[in-house]
Design goal:
- The protein is of the alpha/beta class.
- The protein folds into three domains: 152 residues, Adenylosuccinate Synthetase, Chain A, domain 1; 93 residues, Adenylosuccinate Synthetase, subunit A, domain 2; 157 residues, Adenylosuccinate Synthetase, subunit A, domain 3 (Adenylosuccinate Synthetase, Chain A, domain 3), CATH 3.90.170.
- Helices cover 34% and strands 20% of the residues.
- It contains 13 helices and 19 strands.
- The strands form five sheets. The protein has a nine-stranded mixed β-sheet, sandwiched between helices.
- A hairpin with a 7-residue loop joins strand 18 and strand 19.
- It is globular and about 65 Å long.
- The structure holds guanosine-5'-diphosphate (GDP), 6-O-phosphoryl inosine monophosphate (IMO) and magnesium ion (MG).
- Guanosine-5'-diphosphate binds next to helix 1 and strand 3.
- 6-O-phosphoryl inosine monophosphate binds next to helix 4.
Length: 423
C-alpha cells in the first residue's frame, strides 16, 4: 500500500512510535503532519529506548526519509536537541529530514502563556503538557503566528517577533508573570535559524510526486482521537485535529491518495491530563497496571491515569476515521489478572448514550456497560504465533475485533520492535 496512516484511537500513548517504526521498515517517507512536542513517541531497539517528540519515528531505517509537514508546530530548541541526540547515536539526519516552511513556530512566549493559563486555572487546570501548544495554534488561527517561512528574512522576522512578544508580555504581566526577554530570545532564535534553514523544503511537491510514483508513504499520527480539537470533550483536548482528515490539511496529500488507515489500540485505557475518563480505575488495580505497563508520560513524566478498554470510544474512532485495520498493543501488560472488563457502551440516567452526543459534563457522568472476561496467567511476551496465545487472550482479542467490525493486523506483546504476534 503506497500511502498509509497510523492513528492512536484512544487518549494518546497507544504505542504509535513502536508501530510506526515497524511499519516504516520499507517506507520511502515517514511524515509527522500535526501537533508538536506535546507528542512523545517511543521506539525500542535492542536494549536502547529512543524518544521522539517531533522527528518521525521511522527515521532509523536506512532508506526512509523523514518529513515534518505544515500541520506541525515547531519548538526549534526541542527539534535541534532531537537532531543532536540522533547524531550521538550515529544517525545523521542531514540528507534524511525535510521541514515545511509552512510550519508555525512555538515561541518562548507561547510556553510562558501556556504555563500562566494553567496556573491561573488552579483546580480547574486542563493538565496540558505546558509546551505552548494551545497558544501557538491559537496565534496561527488569529493570524498572529510566525512560521519557519518567516525565518528566511531575518530582519522581517525580528520586527514581527518584537511586535508579538511585546503584546504577549503585556498579557503575561496581567497574570503577574515575569515577561520574556525579547533580546535574549532573539539571539537564541538566530542561532537556531541557521541550523534549521538547510532542512527547509517544499514538502508538498515531494509528497505529491512520491504518491504519483507509488512510493510508500507512512503518516504518523500524534496524540489520540479522544484528544481531537473538535471531537474530544472540549476543552479537555489538544489544539490540533487528530482525525485522519489532518493528513490532507497538515501535509497537502489529497485525502483520496491515502490507501489505508491503521488504528492503534492499547489493550486497556490510559490518559494524562484532566478531563472525563469513563472507564477510569482507582486504587491497587490501577497502580498495578500503571507500574507493570510503565505508564508514565513520555513527554512530561506524569503518571498516566488507567482504565479498562473503552470500546464505545474506540468504535467512534474507527467510524470517524474509517479505520481499515487495528493493531492492539500492550496485551502483555494484562497477563496475571483474574478477570478483565471492556466497556461496550454508556448509559446516562438509565438511557443508552453514544460518545458523540456527550460533552464533558455528560462524559463525566456516564456509566460504562461492562462485559467481563476471564483473564490469563501466562506471560505472552515471547509468543509470536496467534495460536500460541492463551485461549482467554484470543477470546478477548476476537471480541474486540468483532465488536468494532475491524480486522486485527497484528498484536504487540512487548516494547521491542520484534515483540509481535502475527495473526
Ligand atoms: P505513543 O505516544 O503512542 O508513541 O506511545 P508512548 O511511546 O508514549 O507510550 C507507549 C509505551 O509503551 C512506550 O514506553 C513503549 O515503549 C511501550 N510499548 C509499546 N508497545 C508495547 C507493548 O506491546 N508492550 C509493552 N509492554 N510496552 C509497549
Ligand atoms: P502522544 O503523541 C498523551 C494531552 C495532554 C493534555 C491535553 C492538552 O505521545 O500520544 P496540550 O499540551 O496538547 O495542550 O495538552 O492533551 N496530550 C497527550 N496525552 N499523549 C500525547 O501525545 C498527548 N498530547 C497531548 O496530556 O491532557
Ligand atoms: Mg506518547
Amino acid at each position: 500500500m503506497p500511502a498509509e496512516s497510523v492513528l492512536g484511537l484512544q487518549w494518546g500513548d497507544e504505542g504509535k512510535g513502536k508501530i510506526t517504526d515497524l511499519l516504516a521498515q520499507n517506507a520511502d517517507f515517514v511524515v509527522r503532519y500535526h501537533g508538536g512536542n506535546n507528542a512523545g513517541h517511543t521506539v525500542v531497539t535492542g536494549n536502547k529506548k529512543h524518544f521522539f517528540h517531533l522527528i518521525p519515528s521511522g527515521i532509523f531505517h536506512k532508506n526512509t526519509k523523514a518529513i515534518i509537514s505544515n500541520g506541525v508546530i515547531l519548538d526549534l530548541g526541542v527539534l535541534l536537541n532531537e537532531i543532536d541526540t540522533l547524531k550521538k547515536e550515529g544517525i545523521r539526519v542531514n540528507n534524511k529530514l525535510m521541514i515545511s516552511p509552512r510550519c508555525h513556530l512555538i515561541l518562548p512566549y507561547h510556553k510562558a502563556l501556556d504555563i500562566a493559563y494553567e496556573n491561573a486555572r488552579g483546580k480547574k487546570k486542563l493538565g496540558t503538557t505546558k509546551r505552548g501548544i494551545g497558544p501557538s495554534y491559537s496565534d496561527k488561527v488569529s493570524y498572529n503566528g510566525l512560521r519557519v517561512y518567516d525565518l528566511i528574512n531575518w530582519n522581517d522576522f525580528c520586527g514581527k517577533y518584537r511586535f508579538q512578544a511585546k503584546i504577549k508580555n503585556k498579557i503575561l504581566k496581567t497574570f503577574g508573570v515575569k515577561p520574556i526577554s525579547i533580546a535574549k530570545s532573539l539571539i537564541e532564535l538566530k542561532r537556531q535559524r541557521t541550523r534549521i534553514l538547510p532542512f527547509v523544503k517544499d514538502v508538498f511537491e515531494v509528497l505529491n510526486n512520491a504518491a504519483a510514483a507509488k512510493k510508500k508513504i507512512l503518516f504518523e499520527g500524534a496524540h489520540g482521537i479522544m484528544l481531537d480539537l473538535d471531537w474530544s470533550p472540549y476543552p479537555y483536548a489538544t489544539a490540533s485535529n487528530t482525525v485522519v482528515g489532518s493528513v490532507n490539511t497538515g501535509s497537502g496529500l489529497p485525502i483520496r491518495s491515502l490507501d489505508r488507515v491503521i488504528g492503534i489500540v492499547k489493550a486497556f485505557t490510559s490518559r494524562v491530563g484532566e478531563g472525563p475518563l469513563p472507564t477510569e480505575l482507582h486504587g491497587r488495580l490501577a497502580d498495578a497496571i500503571r507500574e507493570r505497563g510503565g505508564e508514565y508520560g513520555t513527554t512530561t513524566g506524569r503518571p498516566r491515569r488507567i482504565g479498562w478498554l473503552d470500546l464505545e470510544a474506540v468504535r467512534f474512532s474507527c467510524k470517524i476515521n474509517n479505520v481499515d485495520e487495528i493493531v492492539i498493543t500492550k496485551l502483555d501488560i494484562l497477563s496475571g489478572l483474574l478477570e478483565l472488563k471492556v466497556c461496550t457502551g454508556y448509559t446516562l440516567n438509565g438511557r443508552k448514550v453514544h460518545y458523540s452526543e456527550c460533552g464533558y459534563n455528560e462524559l463525566a457522568k456516564v456509566k460504562p456497560v461492562y462485559k467481563t472476561f476471564p483473564g490469563w496467567m501466562d506471560d505472552v511476551v515471547s509468543v509470536r504465533k496467534y495460536k500460541d496465545l492463551p485461549k482467554e487472550c484470543r477470546n478477548y482479542l476476537e471480541f474486540i475485533s468483532k465488536f468494532l467490525g475491524v480486522k486485527i493486523k497484528f498484536v504487540s506483546v512487548g516494547a521491542d520492535r520484534n515483540a509481535n504476534v502475527k495473526m
